[in-house]
Structures are given as structure tokens and as C-alpha cells.
Design a protein that fits this description.
The chain is α/β, with parallel strands linked by helices. Helices cover 40% and strands 24% of the residues. The protein has helices at 2-8, 23-34, 51-61, 82-91, 109-121, 132-142, 166-176, 181-184, 187-198; strands at residues 14-19, 42-47, 67-73, 93-104, 146-151, 154-156, 203-206, 209-213, 216-221. A 4-stranded mixed beta sheet has the order 3-4-9-5. A 3-stranded antiparallel beta sheet has the order 6-8-7, with no helix packed on it. It has a two-stranded parallel sheet with strand order 1-2.
Length: 225
């Protein structure tokens, strides 16, 4: 994204506030940036903290600067209150700014799986099972204007249906976000999840393969009026 921004606006200097609680991921980002000398026009501020810690620090410092672009890609699963998080970051946008959110689509197989087995699979301490459908409902209820798009994506999950298949078991752990799901889930829950994963609402079967609907949703939010 930063490379594309440079192409579009070659003379502009950029301040990039990086917010990431994982030391390893922050290190990976630093290494990636160091390997791209063309990004030397960017001043990076590395914030090793969660989104809520960043919000708290911002308010304590009473900062007034505004952002032209904020992206929250595959991250709202890890906050306690997605709506409050969106509202805070939207408040930081400058008059022509944009807030970009990417999550799994509410119309994806994930959406159907989580709506059906939310209580059995989802961590209630965070918003692990949030989709763009949930975010749109929040935005509609608060009267916030936005644009939405779908990013088609699919995943071959055929191995999940071969009992004992190592790759299939790992895929099942990934889909349920439960470690050793087959060993820890009740037989009824495992059977129900497998049946749903094969259902047309989640997947299509073609040429002997089960292809999971992995679509992502994109939401672009404008500044507060």
C-alpha cells in the first residue's frame, strides 16, 4: 500500500503510525521496511500496543493530529468492542480521510459457521466471530455512511472429510479456531460442524473437491460529518 501511495503521490511525505501488540510481527514489519529503500520518505512510529491501548494513549496525550488513511485489515476479531474501536478511529480521520476495514464476509462460509456455532467455537473475551455483516449492522444503526465491496476467495477443504488425515485435521483446527478440535469436541459437535462445512451455504462440491466460501468483505468509511 505504501509503495502504491508513493507512485500516486511521489512528492508527499508520510507519517505512518504502526499499531501492533506482537513483538514478532512488529519485527517482521521493520525488517520488510528496511529492505525497501524507496520507503525512506516515510516516518514510521512503532507502537507496540493493542488498538485499545493506542486509543487510551492518544486520549491521555490529547493529540489533535488527523489521519488521511487508516486501515484495519483482519484485526477487528481481536478487540472487545468493534463498534467503539471503529468510532474512535473514524474520529481521527481528516476531512477527506478514509477508514478501510477488511474482514470475512457475512455471506461467506465463515459467517454461516459462526452464526450456527458461535457459542461453541467463539472466544467471548474478544470479537473472534465478527463479520462484515455485523459491522454493517452497527454502521446502519448509527447512521454512518460507508461503501462496501466483496473480495471473492475460496479454499479447498476436502481433506477435512477424511478422518485421521493430518492436513485435514489442521484445516479443521483452522476453520474452527480450536486447537485439536477433533480430539476436544464432542462427537455431536464435530459431526455437526463437518455437516455444515459441506452444506451449500458454506461450500460447493466440484470434481470430488469441497471448496469453502472464503469471501472477504471490504468496508470504506468516511469521516464524521
Amino acid at each position: 500500500m505504501l509503495s502504491v501511495l508513493r507512485l500516486k503521490h511521489p512528492a508527499v511525505t508520510v507519517e505512518n503510525e504502526v499499531v501492533e501488540p506482537s513483538s514478532q510481527q512488529l519485527h517482521n514489519y521493520r525488517v520488510s521496511v528496511a529492505q525497501k529503500p524507496e520507503l525512506d520518505y516515510i516516518k514510521f512510529t512503532w507502537n507496540k500496543m493493542t488498538a485499545s491501548e493506542f486509543e487510551e494513549a492518544w486520549k491521555v496525550k490529547k493529540l489533535t493530529k488527523r489521519a488521511d488513511f487508516i486501515h484495519m485489515i483482519q484485526m477487528l476479531y481481536y478487540v472487545k468492542d468493534p463498534g467503539a474501536t471503529i468510532s474512535f478511529f473514524q474520529s481521527l480521520l481528516d476531512k477527506n480521510g478514509k477508514l478501510l476495514i477488511i474482514l470475512v464476509s457475512g455471506e461467506s462460509g465463515w459467517g454461516r459457521l459462526w452464526r450456527t456455532y458461535r457459542h461453541q467455537l467463539c472466544n467471548t473475551e474478544i470479537s473472534q466471530c465478527v463479520t462484515t455483516g455485523d459491522i454493517k449492522s452497527f454502521l446502519d444503526s448509527t447512521g454512518v455512511s460507508y461503501q462496501s465491496y466483496e473480495l471473492p476467495s475460496q479454499m479447498d477443504i476436502t481433506e477435512c472429510f477424511t478422518e485421521g488425515d493430518e492436513k485435514g485435521e489442521l484445516l479443521l483446527d483452522f476453520l474452527t479456531e480450536v486447537l485439536d478440535f477433533s480430539k476436544t469436541a464432542s462427537p455431536e459437535l464435530r459431526a455437526g460442524v463437518l455437516q455444515l462445512l459441506r452444506h451449500p451455504d458454506c461450500s460447493v462440491e466440484s470434481d470430488g473437491k469441497v471448496i469453502f466460501n472464503n469471501n472477504l468483505g471490504v468496508i470504506v468509511i468516511d469521516p464524521l460529518c
